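## tool: complex_structure
## caller: assistant
## args:
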Amino acid sequence: MNDLLCDSIVAIDRVTRRFGATAALDRVSLGVPRGSVFGLVGENGAGKTTLIKHVMGLFKPQEGSVRVFGLDPVADPVGVLARVGYLSEDRDLPEWMRIWELLRYLRPFYPTWDDSLAEELLVRFELDVNAQIKTLSQGQRARTALLSALAYRPELLVLDEPSTGLDPIVRRDILTAIIRTIADEGRTVLFSSHLLEEVERVSDRVAMMSQGRIVLDGPLDEIKESHRRVTLRFDEPQSISPYPSFRFEGNGDGREWTGVYDGSIEILAERVGSLGGRIVSANPISLDEIFVARVERSKADRLSAKKETSLDREL
Amino acid sequence: MDVRINQADGQPIYLQIVNQVKYLAASGRLRVGDELPPIRVLAERLLINPNTVARAYRELEILGIVEKRKTAGTYVAEGAPTLIKRERIKILADRVDMLLAEAHRLDVPFEDLLALVNKRRETLRFNEDLKP
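## result:
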């Protein structure tokens, strides 16, 4: 295990999980540093929920290891779960209970349960303790689930697609909860989302998943500062991409090429210069555009790797 | 303090805060001794990570634009105006660069651009009453 994983609240080391023939997770390694907000992004089916379920000890890794606070969440669920606040994707709550019954039921599981915080959140979220859970709206249900994940001030808050299907006001409550959690020294948040603007707002570190693999993992600011939309212009038309590994695309006559580039600008300038061209612009882009570019690049790389292996077999 | 986050902007959020605080100080809307909002307050107002606000404040402190005081809190620093004077020129220089680049792309000769600047100045008729 490398240094980053050793200092992490959540340490995922080469975890693989197969459902039938498909690898939902393919040698995934991640470290969530203490005191940070870690944003996990990916398309539907990329493996985010499967990964989070491993963190919560709901799945046992077929290969590799998962540690939360240095503990194995499958072997020691009590030691781990009492310190983790979890909001699952489907926000499953016992339908027949009233909100006060739910809170009374949850309280004994958590030594750090804070009645005054629960009270404060009930008021802030405008929840009626006598309301039955099955009668709640989507938003009130999400707020109830959020309250039950926050009321014991967990050291780690895990949110799986917390914003799905919610209006902007409830989404704001969730973002505020994330911000308040890490504003308290030492607490950590891991959340998955397909809403890149939200991830960009609150994350310190971001990992992008595609087809069960991590395609990019790093501090958000570094990711944003290293990726540029670059436009190249050549005196003579170029018949193939001037830098295939970065998927530059030609517009029309082959004199202008555009792509998302995250390598050294000096190296690019040199390479383009040797082909009789120059960089005409290099502009910062949003996380959304970075994500699309990286996922496309990863899919193209895997496709060409597949082609090569089948070619090898034929030869 | 009127700071806004523009998500379409490719710039990292901490840098957007740094630049806007500089801009507010350059335009006189923040003065020496003014207190900046506490990190947590600004983070909740802008719905961004408090670590990001902390990073922006650290950068501003390194630049000498703000200072931390013992009683806690971050204030616009004594030396800020001198730095900001340079900053004003830099802000304008960036805009001028963009304008020059745009003119170049549109194939407008420099002389025509200068003439246009003069003409716009006449049209807008900046006078003393318009100053804030």
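## assistant note: Chain B has five helices and three strands. The first strand of chain B starts at residue 35 and ends at 36. Handing back to user.
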